[in-house]
Design a protein that fits this description.
Order of helices and strands of chain A: HHEEHHHHEEEHEEEHHHHEHEEHEEHEE
Structural class of chain A: alpha+beta
Shape of chain B: globular
Strand order of the largest sheet of chain B: 2-1-3-4-5
Strand content of chain A: 15-25%
Structural class of chain B: alpha/beta
Distance between the termini of chain A: 41 Å
Helix content of chain A: 40-55%
Number of helices of chain A: 14
Largest sheet of chain B: 5 strands, parallel
Largest interface: A-B, 15 and 17 residues
Number of strands of chain B: 5
Distance between the termini of chain B: 19 Å
Strand order of the largest sheet of chain A: 5-4-3-8-7-6
Oligomer: heterodimer
Order of helices and strands of chain B: EHEHEHHEHEH
Chain lengths: 489, 123
Amino acid sequence: MENQFNSKSTKSVKILGKTPDGFLQHVLSEKIELIDFNTNELRTTDKNLFSFIDEEHLLWINSLLQSHYKNSSTFSDLKSSKFKDTSTENYLKKISLESNTIDEFLFKILQHKNFKNFETIFLFVHPKGELTSIKHEVSQTYQRQSLLNVKEFNHFFQAIKKSKNRSFGQNELKGNTFNILGTFIAREFSLTFHNIIFIISRNDFLPPTDEELTIFQEFSKSFPFFLNTFLYSHLETFKKEISYKIQNDLFKNLHNMDVSLNEQTDIFHTERLNLLGELLNTLRHELSNPLFGLQLSSQILKEDFSNNPDNLEFLEEIIKNIMRSQDIIKNFSDLFIEKNLKKDIDLKEVIEEVITLTKSETRGINKEIIAQERIKLKINATFLVQVLFNLIINSAQELQRAQTLSPNIKIYLNENQKGIIIDIIDNGPGIAKEKIDEIFKPFYTTKIKGTGLGLSISSSMIQKLNGKLTCEEYAHGAHFKIQLPRNND
Amino acid sequence: MKVLIIEDEFLIQQSLKKLIERRGCDVIATSLGHQAIELIQNHNFDRIICDLMLQDISGFDIIEEAKKKYSLEEISNIFVIITAYSSPQVLNQAASYRCQVLNKPFTNINQAINLMLEVTSEK
């Protein structure tokens, strides 16, 4: 699975047109919101990420995280070392730099001579805005982590905030599900990204001494700062480490990959389309001058032939064809406009252009656009054209492969209150019900030379237009549906 | 009416020349910017139809040269810019001369030629 992923991601990196470095930085800095310290899992809130990195890939990143935890230095090593620092602040600074995990950090606090009478530290970390908080429990002999819901967390947070002396008996906090034995000292902190409850317990029933309370108070002054820094830098370190590991694996695989030139051209499907756009623009500029010359000169001839009906008819036909050529070249290059430019389009006209573009690939297949009325919309047609192009080519390839009798592709255009719906339906072999979710995943393909990226890229392009691309269940062929909002702003 | 056509696409140049001659004008055509500047210096044209994209220099360069001979007011009346690339920058610059700008290809040839030859004393 790992190898499979690596080669896949190499491709996806290329498709994105970014260096592996840039791609990863993008993913890690923007997409991965949080590393869950309890489960060591990465969480992402960006659904788009899944169009390039699916759950399988995230699992793989997670496994890297797990190994990171395993490799961190053992606690027994740390216990044996002697700390000479007397100042709490210096000590906290030192251990926050030395520690790799939050549990290690807490364990080292417990080693400090000021806390030698204490058995256990509890740290409740609630990342602001999240629904759960994480409970870290660290003693001389064990570390444990568990989840706590936010409601409970908030309850304790408020209760501790109200308390004056920070000292609590086992039964003093209502609904104590902490499983903390005996009396304990607690303090709540509000950090940049987290709310924190810090609890230290001796696991006995003697109330804390005045000396212990003073120590704790002094500790509480500097602890939030270091914890905050630690939690923050910890997250960054993790990101860097993962990024480094993924990069290493990517480059290793890059060397092992044996991709022939042909396969590569297939991979760059979108690049090909972009190139086509550039080509069409060049053609437009190069062709428009001679065409304009023809248009003008035929005007002269038309004036000359005004009393020769036979020749005039010919000439009219020549002029018509010149105008048509001018239109074609203009419309094609209009399809490939700048990324952020929106233009008013007539949907049917655009689809007609796409069908013309696919003419050679869809030879022998009947194509039909069914629309009740003209649909106008303001959109960047470039993406839409690429998706339609891709869907039509897919259909055509399947129809040809299955040698379907009287093959056809029907494109239905409809409008409702919500927006515009384009249904692309063929009478080919179709897509099995259980495969419908699979086909949009990157690298899923049934073609020998396919990259498995067509539909996943198509899907993300439609998402960029704030729309949705789906595959519908259909018994007599394949049915793809594009839903677009009316206002694409 | 004396007309100069500066256009480097031969078929366009010759066709325009013929079409305008048929309106009873005296037409000189050239495809070179430098030659056009010379012609402007030595002749008095009522109308100069100028393409922007030439092989040697740009149409704007010709207009700048023509400033030595004509006032801004005269330039706005004499020059007609024809262009296939109507980018906002080009249009802005063209607008700064306040002369007529026509896009290639013309949707209606006769109308376009009428516009070119129109006597535009007041703008």
